[in-house]
Here is the input.
Amino acid sequence: MISAIDPASPLATVVALGVGLITSLHCVGMCGPIACGLGSIAKSENEGFAAASLYHGGRLASYALIGTVCGAIGRQPLQWFFGSQAAFLPWALVAALLLLAFGLDKRIPRPAFLKRLTTRARFKASQLPALGSSAAMGLLTPFLPCGPLYAVFLVVLTSGSAVKGAEVMLAFGLGTVPLLWLAQHQFHRLRARFSPNAMARLQRGLALLAALVIAWRLHGTLPFGTVHSQSASGQPPVPSCCH
Here is the structure.
């Protein structure tokens, strides 16, 4: 019997963390210069560390807020059509990885007005002192025109609740931190060692491998036709993917 995926399962959160790690290869090229520029305006090493911390803290706060909104928006449609919360979330994350693997994330529309808005906001934020500028830049980063990030936002619509949406986006954001933090301190070395094309190929290969592994792990958990089913005891069926 095909069973629904338990919304409380940590599987989707773990997958989101992995998606963040893979996507960070793209983030280094796009956000790396912004993140590194913040360190250059710091007056001391301690201030530079604080600026980096505020930048990532701002990013994570924005990710969690956006995840909360997306999860809340998508909750009711999931109930109407499938009678289940988060039934598709892990599979939606697999779809996002396949978009990255085949470069289809580049075809996701990037609203021109959003680009203009964030450009002006980033310019104003850059006029602030180092710590204030870092926090503001972090808060604005999720609104940059970014195909992979927009794909994850769409995925979080299937998270089933505001809380789960925030959890998944926070996990994704945490996954992007290690490589970006390294880039802030070793950006020039990374760029010299890995070309943008090499980084893109590595990201696509890892995304495809991760998608295949996760899809295999989720085998037998598609929610179609079973989200309304009950066991003999009147309880929802136990997910086959999480014991």
Notes: The chain has a mean pLDDT of 78. The radius of gyration is 19 Å. Residues 17-217 form one domain. The chain has one domain: 17-217.
